[in-house]
Amino acid sequence: MKLLSAILREIRPKQWTKNGLVFFGLVYALDFDQPALVLRSIIAFTAFCSISSAGYVFNDLRDAARDRLHPTKRFRPIAAGTLTAQTAWPLALLLGGVGFALAAQLGAVFAACCVLYVLLTSGYSLWWKHVVLIDVFALAAGFVLRAAAGAVAIDVPISPWLYMCTILGSLVISLGKRRSEIGIGAETAEAHRPALEHYTIAFIDQLIVVTATASVMAYSLYTFSADTVPKNHSMMTTIPIALYGVFRYLFLVQVRGLGGDPEDLLMRDRSLSIAIGLFLLVSAVILELSPRGG
Predict the structure, then answer these.
(1) Distance of alpha carbon 65 from alpha carbon 74, whole angstroms
(2) Where are the alpha helices (DSSP H) in the chain?
(3) Please, which residues bridge with residue 175 across strands?
(4) pLDDT tens string for the chain (294 positions)?
(5) What is the DSSP string of 85-123?
(6) DSSP character at residue 260
(7) CA angle 253-256-261, nearest 5°?
(8) How many CB atoms neighbour CB 225 within 10 A?
């Protein structure tokens, strides 16, 4: 039972919420009435969950020594010694094998997206997370790849608006994560992640302002400029909800000092969860009931 508990903690199911980005293609295409496409999106989501969990195990195996210096990551199963390397390596290989077996069912292009994702995350684990600025771009690229792979899985075009909004929004999240890591403790931050030596909270806050502003502008332009939104500009009614969500996230990061685990914010902060849920609900209703442009 202890081993099973350690494995469940190690594969980090709460972080699977990030893989929900693969459903963006389905939402964008509004093809919920086609069960085959819904099933393909679910398979894509499961594949990314399996592959990303394999990456978490690999990353923790590589970073066990550094994680032991971190005030919270030292409790991860591998760093804490509750999951041995002899068990963790086969677990990573099994998860990766299952993920790519599922990916193969969705075609060569989707499988190629998964390979690119593995290369990206492996490069991040080994090198890029130690390089200032490149580390946050690498984190953001992982989000973009998820969204792009979701569109590939159901064979819909990858919208430039999807690309812009995803990369800008993910940069805000990545920068918030770095800010939290610095705030946890300057003495241990640099030892855990050398790139943090080159960051300051003031500098990261400036970057967050730039990217948050750009993301809001990009989404606002999407609501009345994209070919796929309603001609009556009703999608603009979601802008205040999106603004509140961004403001709430910035409040949690810059005032409360949170953001190290973005998935925790979604689960624990009721206001942010309500804002995201309301945004998705209103957007879905508008896109479903209103005539779209073209």
Answers:
(1) 9
(2) 2-11, 24-29, 35-62, 64-67, 77-80, 85-104, 108-126, 134-153, 160-184, 186-192, 201-225, 239-254, 262-268, 270-289
(3) none
(4) 788 888 988 999 988 988 998 988 777 666 566 788 889 999 999 999 999 999 999 888 888 888 887 777 888 899 888 888 889 999 999 999 999 999 999 999 999 999 999 999 888 878 888 888 999 999 899 999 999 999 999 988 777 888 899 899 999 999 998 888 887 655 555 555 666 778 889 999 999 999 999 999 999 999 988 877 888 889 999 999 999 999 999 999 988 887 767 777 777 889 999 999 999 889 888 877 776 554
(5) HHHHHHHHHHHHHHHHHHHHTT-HHHHHHHHHHHHHHHH
(6) S
(7) 50
(8) 11
CB neighbour burial string for 237-259, b if at least 16 within 10 angstroms, e if fewer: ebbebbebbbebbbebbbeeebb
Q: How many CB atoms lie within 10 A of CB 4?
A: 8
Amino acid at 103: A
Q: For the purposes of burial, counting CB atoms within 10 Å of the CB of 136, is it exposed (0-12), middle (13-18) or buried (19 or more)?
A: buried
d(CA 8, CA 283): 34
Instruction: Answer yes or no: are the C-beta atoms of 74 and 84 closer than 8 Å.
Output: no
Q: How is domain 1-158 classified at the architecture level of CATH?
A: Orthogonal Bundle (1.10)
Of 246, 252, 251, the closest CA to residue 276 belongs to: 246
**Which residue's entry shows tokens 């939290």?**
180
Those residues with Cβ within 8 angstroms of residue 186's Cβ, 6 or more apart along the chain or in another chain: none
Q: Which amino acid is residue 294, in one-letter code? A: G
Tracing tokens 């979601």 back to the chain, one arrives at: 238
Lookup: tokens for 88: 């963790």
Give the global pTM: 0.83
Tell me which amino acid residue 171 is. Answer: L
